[in-house]
Amino acid sequence: MRKYIICFLAFFLTILTPISGLASSEKDLNEKIDSARGKVIEVIKDAQLKEKNNPDLSLETQVVKVKVLSGKFKGEEFVIENNLSGNPSYDIKVKKGDEVLLSIEDSKNDAPKISISDYIRDKYLIILLVIFVALLIIIGGLKGLKSVITLSITAVIIMFFMLPMILKGYNPIWVAIVSATLITLITFFIIGGFNVKSFSAIVGTVGGVVCAGVLAYIVGSLVKLTGLNSEEAGMLMFIPQKISFDFRGLLFSGIIIGTLGAVMDIGMSIASAMYELKVLNPDISPRELIKSGLNIGKDVMGTMSNTLILAYTGSSIPLLLLFMSYDTSLSKILNLDLMATEIVRALVGSIGLIIAIPITAFSTGFILKLESKKLESKEN
Fold it and tell me: Which positions, given as ranges, span the membrane (predicted)?
């Protein structure tokens, strides 16, 4: 159960880091590497050594006693070395009482080789998840509970359908479109029920997301995006499944899924408002209703576009500071694959959101007009 909670949490934080055992054909068959939870009992020694050839470079070694809290060696204590390079991106400097993730190389012939691979973070993330779910239910009531259910279903679709299908070699763009459609259908029918409002919101959302996906594909091909602008994408070349990924397709599928949330929000907002207008004023003409829906969309459009662009900008702040510190020219920045990818991601997502507005407004107006005609025919 705990494993599924951690997977669920990872989805919300947009951190999907599946942990798998790594096996190498060059290793002895009697050896394997496992992960286990551990706790630092004592820091026995903390020494800093200067590199003889480079006095500015210092290496630090900690000698620590750790207790294994899970796995084959649960309950056993070991004294191990924890080597630090001076790079905070890779170093795991520990103190007494820290809970850590241990990498254990178990050999039938020798004592296990144990090293510290990371801090234990999941319990704090689970606490944050519990706070999030509790607030949703306390403040949102029944709708909050429905939100929790739909978020859970979204996580299941991504973790157990979308990612496995891509990992099996299926086209990532089509897999993302199918996943986005499933998420949209399930979410709107649970939140809004089986009615005109939900159906028209689905039409607008799917239309906006598909348009964003098509536009991303066209523009991405024209500007020759590689999809290899991240370290994780490069690492996919060496996974044990030996799949030949379409990295550009992976990029576009990420844009589709990244756009989905904002487009769903604007689709439901417009459909719901138009539905309420029709209920309050049954005599309103389809033309006026559609005009009202477009006006509502215009009001929401600015803030939602800002939401997408600020989200992508926020994740790129270190990169932007790096460019600024070296006075990099705007022309060079715009032509970098990494920056072009982020710009395409932000702008295509915003365009998909904008396109969803008229699609939702016109589809809602058309569907409500048909519903009115049906009611009139029944009355006559």
Answer: 124-142, 149-167, 173-194, 201-223, 243-264, 308-326, 346-368
Does the pLDDT value for residue 238 go beyond 60?
yes
CA distance 68 to 74: 5
Q: To 5 degrees, how large is the angle CA 192–CA 190–CA 270? A: 30
> Tokens representing 51?
């590199």
Written as six digits, the tokens of 258 are 């990244």
Distance, CA of 63 to CA of 48 (rounded, Å): 12
H or E element in which residue 119 lies: strand 113-119
Q: If residue 265 lies in a helix (H) or strand (E), which one and from where to where?
A: helix 247-280
Instruction: Classify domain 23-120 by CATH number.
Output: 2.40.50
Q: What's the confidence (pLDDT) of residue 55?
A: 57
Phi, psi of 59 (to 5 degrees): -115, 135
* Angle (nearest 5°) at CA 154 between 151 and 158: 140
Which one-letter DSSP state was computed for residue 111?
P
Total Cβ atoms within 10 A of residue 272: 18
Among 375, 348, 362, residue whose Cα is nearest residue 201: 362
- Give the mean model confidence (pLDDT) for residues 153-176: 91
The answer to whether the beta carbons of residues 144 and 189 sit under 8 Å apart is no
Q: Which helix (H) or strand (E) covers residue 48, if one does? A: strand 31-50
Specify the pLDDT at position 154: 93
CA dihedral 280, 281, 282, 286 (to 10 degrees): -120
The kind and range of the H/E element at 253 are: helix 247-280
The string of pLDDT tens digits covering residues 33-84 is 788 899 999 988 887 665 555 555 667 888 899 999 988 889 989 998 888 8
Look at the block and give the residue holding tokens 């949209």. 184
Tokens of 369: 């007009």
List of residues 6+ apart from 368 with CB closer than 8 A = 196, 200, 274, 275, 278, 286, 289
Give the residue carrying structure tokens 């990818």.
341
**What tokens were used for 347?**
């702008």
Residue 51 confidence (pLDDT):
57
Residue 24 has pLDDT above 80, yes or no: no
pLDDT at residue 235, rounded to an integer: 81
Domain ranges of the chain: 23-120, 142-379
Cβ(83)–Cβ(7) below 8 Å: no
- According to the model, what pLDDT value does residue 20 have? 35
**Encoded amino acid at 364, one letter:** T
